[in-house]
Amino acid sequence: MLYLKSFFRKKSTKIYLIIYSVLLTTIFSMLVLINYCNKSINDVYKTKSYILMTCKGDYFKEISKLNVVKEVERIIIFEENEKDTTFKNQSYSIISKDTTVNYDNGENYNEIVCWEDYGMSSINSATKIIIKPDKNNDLKLKDNEIVLSTEGVKNKKQETKDNLKGKNIIFKYNENDIEFTIKDYYDSNDLEMMISENKFNELNLKNNIYSYKIYVDDYLNTSEIKEKLKIASNYNDINIGTRINFDGNENADKVTNSIEFRSVFEMITFFSICGFIIIFIIVTGNILSDEKKNSKIERVLGYNKKQLKLHVVVKLISLMITALLISLIISFILRLIIS
Known about the structure:
With 339 residues, the chain is an alpha+beta fold. It has helices spanning 2-9, 11-48, 60-64, 158-164, 197-205, 222-232, 249-300, 305-338, and strands spanning 50-56, 69-80, 92-95, 100-103, 119-122, 125-134, 145-149, 168-173, 176-186, 193-196, 209-216, 239-243. Helix content is 48%, strand content 24%. Strands 2-6-10-7-9-8 form a 6-stranded mixed barrel. The two termini are 40 Å apart.
């Protein structure tokens, strides 16, 4: 071990150790910060986001068993109906200068309730509304009654909310009209509605398309999750979409900032790895060159060629392990600080 002590006492070795430690600490610290940014983004996504899946056949058990799935709920999907007069369609224009939204419904937005307040739509498709069952009969719903989540009307006037109670609303389901009476509202952070479990089961049995609301822990890895869902449902006429929702501008800003910081950290990591590779080649070359000069002395002391080669390998590995341990300790402390 004397040859190791003399190796680490050298000024050049100390310089190499510092350079290695700085580069490795930078790489590991950036990975910690990237992971922190991903966690921050994911934490925002998990508050209101989910995967919406429809397929032919009931694969509830298969989906529930997937380790990537945190929770799965049975739902059915209603669509907006042009015959309905209770809900309206959004009609608006956006002034790009200050991103002001002008609603052209002839009424103030907070005085009307639109289909889009409770669902997602595109240019070529009707707004789709998520319908859940009142499993525990907490709301004591009759089969012709429906309750709306408070999330959809959170920005509406109280008078608008009150006026909606008791009114009938017509949906489309399986290309048929279906009508319910709005009983009340219930607390929920999601855009959805709820009907009695009895009515839910009745409608679900008539449909050969099954729908699920799926919650996961990692919304940054939805591609892999979707592939696992496809396999679990045997690719049986499956449709999967991810709904990423933010709870206010503050969380949206948090996600934007995290994405920007993550990009910077990824760039630093890339250049640090490139720098480490270059430095590693240079330092290894310098150490090998120095060892050639010292080999004559060590040969005089009785070491053979095999032992000399082993000493060089041990020195290189010891230098790397020492730098690695230093960088791991520092990055671990950083992780404790930010977690």
